[in-house]
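Section 3.1 - Work completed
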Amino acid sequence: MYALLRPLLFCLDAELAHDLSLNALGRLADLHLLHGAPVQRSRRVMGIDFPNPVGLAAGLDKNGDYIAALGALGFGFIEVGTVTPRPQPGNPKPRMFRLTPAEALINRMGFNNKGVDHLVKQVRGSRYQGVLGINIGKNKDTPLEQANEDYLACLEKVYPHADYVVVNISSPNTPGLRELQRGEALDALLAPLKESQGRLESRHGRYVPLVVKIAPDMEGEEVALVADRLIANGIDGVTATNTTTTRDGVEGLAHADEQGGLSGAPLRARADQVLEQLAQALNGRMPVIGVGGITAGDHAAEKERLGASLVQLYTGFIYRGPALVPECVSAMARADA
């Protein structure tokens, strides 16, 4: 069905099509017309039992408004956000662009969301019973030197409702955010988050893993340094990668010169390179979630071969639809056999 609907959706503005699709899924779920369960290929990562290793990446459902609907599409886990302490509108529209010949998107959304209190309310009211990750960030107008306060505020509120929490320091659409990935700035962010995690574990009687999401626009030495800091700070997992600011593979296409992060098929080679470098640097001391450029099942299997314990879809899901989920699960299962 999605193959029939996609040409109609792709005639619309990318963000409008995104919103209409989610609204339609939400209505179907509310009417109990959307039923589905994860394709079963269970694995245990970070102490969590995932029904299958293929998840939905953050960004599709920033506010947690459609968790149950998305959870009926076969994913082994859903990640919502990025959410910030206070609501913010994000960047001016238009801010999402399709590069259809390349199976790619460019977005400069800018952490548009309704704020952490809204997301928590939605999570608490959702019928979804599966594995849920919550992705947290900082408000655009919060100075970098005060970024800790935003991440700590979000962690405090989402901790009781998440199976894992992702610290997003790699979006290219919040000015200066990627500086938090480097050296002392990374230590200064992660140390208090780890301390807060310990306090929250005692308060709520459950341990919720902390995951850090990194950018693809790093060289091997930088990747190794990030890996060292993640290990030193006791982080539980890492997501590789976010979108890229490069335009490799889309040169000359309509919208290729738009500002923002590039995702989809052209990102795959760069994301896979960082994933492989990261996995080698970590040497099994921390699981990696592989994301970036998965538009076919074999791409998911390749990320697993390079060291990913789990994978996530976003842009490939927009181009291929729900059929991509079982295709990826099956390809990973064949690779494991």
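Second construct:
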Amino acid sequence: MYTKCKNLANENVETNIIWTNQWDRTLMWLIESRDKTKEQICVDSTSWGNFGNAEFKYINDNGIEVTKNKGEINTRIPTGNAEYTKANNIYDLAGNAPEWVMGAYSQYNRIFRGGAYYEATDLVSGYIYNNPNVIAYGFRVTLYIK
């Protein structure tokens, strides 16, 4: 994952996996811009994220609008296909697929953020960790223009 991320760079841009503090700063920006409230970030992210107790419409892989119902905890949606999961034009920060960040919990475990579609409820602001060999998670790329 790290190598793929780095291969996106060229002489004009530098890329990296998002750092933990960049994730936190993004969440603060959502609050400061008034796109999301502190409660939607720190207390209950289900009003804008793909979690098991969320219900919303999205476009599936066949281009058809369908409804993800409450209680469906095994519905990962195609990223960017639900206005419900968008905050300041960033899709899927809350729920859907957990995302690795450049941060360590211990020598053997790395941090991921954002929560997951298979959780009944979760918080976009929470820290969770796992062994980095788990490949069921995504990651978010940062882009620096030189």
